[in-house]
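Hi all, posting the design record for the shared folder.

TITLE: backbone redesign
STEP: 1 of 1
STRUCTURE INPUT:
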């Protein structure tokens, strides 16, 4: 019953989706408990298809999803209460800054973090923090797909570079994806400006307001 107790604790202490009286079904650890939790997870947007006592992988997936929600709720409450502060890098982290390979990405990553209202990175920051920030951005840009969709596999995204390190390759793939999205929006803005200019310069003698051509 340890798994059942953890799920119940997350709901009662952290997530609190249900009112206290509505949590009775989660407290009854009977044969129908997993069905109740599957419906509960679905309400929270956590995939729980096939949840049962014997399917360990699904159980871990549901537990991971609910834990992420709990952490997100705690972080949001702390942020709204202005109780969070960005800790400066430790001495050991500062001593390893000469080994950084992702330092150049910090300004671009911070701009994306600001867009999603996430804490920005200190400069300098260790590569592990940069990779963690990229993972957060990826989670916002590519949320879990709906049941009818196909999950995005970051490992299959093209990078255009020869990178042996798997974590760095994933980071490069996410950055390339974000850059592509920015270029698409830039192209839309350029097309809009061109259309506006053409409406002004195509025929200087045309006065559309008067409905006639010429002076």
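Okay, here is what came back for every position:
SEQUENCE:
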């Amino acid at each position: 019953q340890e798994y059942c107790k953890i799920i119940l604790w997350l709901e009662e202490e952290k997530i609190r989706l249900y009112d206290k009286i509505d949590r009775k079904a989660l407290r009854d650890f009977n044969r129908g408990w997993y069905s109740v939790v599957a419906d509960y997870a679905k309400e929270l947007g956590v995939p729980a298809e096939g949840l049962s006592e014997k399917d360990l992988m699904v159980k871990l997936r549901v537990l991971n999803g609910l834990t992420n929600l709990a952490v997100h709720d705690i972080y949001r409450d702390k942020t709204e209460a202005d109780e969070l502060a960005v800790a400066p890098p430790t001495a050991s982290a500062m001593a390893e800054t000469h080994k950084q390979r992702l330092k150049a990405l910090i300004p671009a990553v911070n701009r994306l973090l600001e867009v999603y209202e996430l804490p920005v990175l200190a400069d300098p920051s260790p590569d592990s923090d940069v990779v963690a920030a990229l993972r957060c951005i990826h989670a916002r840009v590519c949320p879990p797909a709906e049941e009818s969709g196909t999950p995005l596999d970051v490992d299959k995204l093209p990078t255009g570079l020869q990178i042996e390190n798997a974590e760095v390759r994933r980071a490069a793939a996410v950055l390339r994806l974000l850059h592509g999205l920015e270029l698409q929006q830039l192209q839309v803005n350029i097309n809009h400006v061109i259309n506006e200019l053409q409406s002004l310069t195509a025929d200087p003698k045309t006065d559309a307001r008067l409905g006639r051509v010429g002076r």
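COMMENT: The helical segments are 2-15, 24-27, 33-43, 56-80, 91-95, 106-115, 127-141, 166-201.
Let me know if anyone wants the other runs.
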